[in-house]
Write a structure and sequence with these properties.
binds protoporphyrin IX containing FE; alpha+beta; 19 helices
Length: 423
């Protein structure tokens, strides 16, 4: 990583007019930290024009992002959804899962699965996660030279979730593929044909893979209706909101949200964590010497990786923030990637410190009603992954250039050639 002084110097050479956060290529080689540093310092509530949109506000300071996230009455997830793209009212309605709703309906939906994701509930998956990590790692070690993303970090999160769902083992690869087809569309390599997107405009991400995910979820629901189990799908089909079961569409969208939300995100956190340890061998040695750091290291990996750069809100009224007037219906982006490097909150924010404590990162959101449902599960996965990697692998050797996803939404790594030398 770079130092604060280097970022500050680079920020000093930029002007606010140079910053275009809609330009995905800005994120091609690395996170443009200098742009965020400049915004935090000079214009933390920043208006940005858009080529094919109506413009938006960027909130880049930790405290502003946190306050806006908690004030859901003013900064709504429901009014325009949570992605930057402007959708028509019919699209918003057709694609609306709980992440795009405000309380109280949001809370009622969320309560259906909340108890499956508490620290206690996810702790019971510790051994299972360890077994899956070893399984994936055995195959990777056997290969010797691997694409760390395809062979390791992508293979894991969907398998863990598939096991939580009780999906048959032979379906795991299919579920990983479906998840992959649905996200990452900002990058030219994965972009869908505009005609295909238009034809599927009422589906999440305008992507036909969403229909396949719905069908898969319905198949599991039918199986659980015949034989209920103590699992998430059974909870969803048995749930009642104010005395009424979920509609088919609500079930479809809930199933899809849960299936995709932890897939790419956890993958990118694992890939970035690997990269951070390769780039900071002293921190790798520290983790080898002090296994008790596993937990704080997981949080530091989550902070520096920030797999989701931002989510959107829409103002429900005119509101003043730091002397700027945000108008009703304006789009407001909460840049978690910026909050996670805010120098007013994190000492030496560009330093990767596996013992960082406290570490109030906002990788899972800063704590409003939408705080990531899967946060404890994802944190546990990251913790176990690196415990096992460090325990079993003596050397992590880069074997080619790292290929990043070009996206202002995901902080992603597409390919990462490596050699894994077992201990
Ligand atoms: C490193 C991995 C992950 C990251 C970085 C991540 C990030 C996020 C973020 C930033 C939010 C929105 C927070 C907000 O607006 O305040 C969110 C929401 C959500 N996440 Fe995660 N997530 C991860 C893993 C998971 C996993 C494993 C699951 C479930 C299996 C999951 C399920 C959800 C759901 C259902 C929501 C919507 C919650 C709501 O609207 O109330 N996430 N996540």
């Amino acid at each position: 990583m770079t130092t604060t002084a280097e970022i500050e110097r680079a920020a000093g050479e930029l002007s606010l007019d140079d910053v275009d956060l809609t330009d995905h290529s800005l994120f091609a080689d690395r996170v443009p930290h200098e742009a965020f540093a400049l915004l935090r310092r000079e214009d933390p509530i920043h208006w940005q024009n858009e080529r094919d949109g109506r413009g938006f506000w960027s909130l880049t300071r930790h405290d502003d992002i946190t306050a806006a996230s908690k004030d859901w009455q003013t900064f709504s997830s429901e009014r325009g959804g949570t992605s930057l793209q402007d959708l028509d009212a019919d699209q918003i309605e057709a694609r609306k899962s709980m992440i795009d709703m405000d309380p109280p309906p949001h809370n009622k939906l969320r309560a259906i699965v909340n108890r499956d994701f508490t620290p206690r509930a996810v702790a019971q998956y510790r051994d299972l996660i360890g077994e899956l990590v070893d399984e994936v790692l055995d195959a990777a070690v056997e290969k010797g030279e691997v694409d760390f993303v395809a062979d390791f970090s992508a293979a894991l999160p969907m398998r863990v979730f598939a096991r939580m769902l009780g999906a048959p083992r032979e379906d795991h690869r299919y579920l990983v593929e479906l998840g992959d087809r649905m996200l990452g569309q900002d990058d030219p390599e994965y972009a869908l044909d505009p005609e295909v997107m238009e034809a599927n405009r009422h589906l999440p991400f305008s992507n036909p893979a969403a229909l396949e995910m719905f069908e898969y979820g319905r198949k599991l629901a039918a199986a659980r209706r015949r034989t209920p189990r103590d699992d998430i799908v059974t909870k969803l089909i048995e749930a009642e909101i104010d005395g009424t079961p979920l509609s088919e569409r609500d079930y479809d969208l809930y199933f899809l949200l849960l299936s995709v939300a932890g897939n790419e995100t956890t993958r990118h956190a694992i890939s970035h964590g690997m990269l951070a340890l390769i780039e900071n061998p002293d921190q790798l040695e520290r983790m080898r010497a002090e296994p008790d750091l596993a937990r704080s290291a997981a949080d530091e990996i989550l902070r520096v990786s920030t797999p989701v750069h931002h989510f959107r809100r829409t103002a429900t009224r005119d509101v003043e923030l730091r002397g700027k007037t945000i108008r009703e219906n304006d789009k407001v982006l909460l840049w978690y990637i910026s909050g996670n490097f805010d120098e007013l909150v994190f000492e030496n924010p560009y330093e990767f410190d596996v013992g960082r404590d406290p570490n109030p990162h906002m990788t899972f959101g800063p704590g409003g009603p939408h705080f990531c449902t899967g946060a404890h599960l994802a944190r546990l996965e990251v913790e176990i992954v690196f415990q096992h990697l460090i325990g079993r692998i003596a050397e992590f050797e880069p074997a080619g250039p790292v290929d990043r996803l070009q996206s202002n939404f995901f902080n992603g790594i597409k390919r990462m050639p490596m050699r894994l030398v077992p201990a």
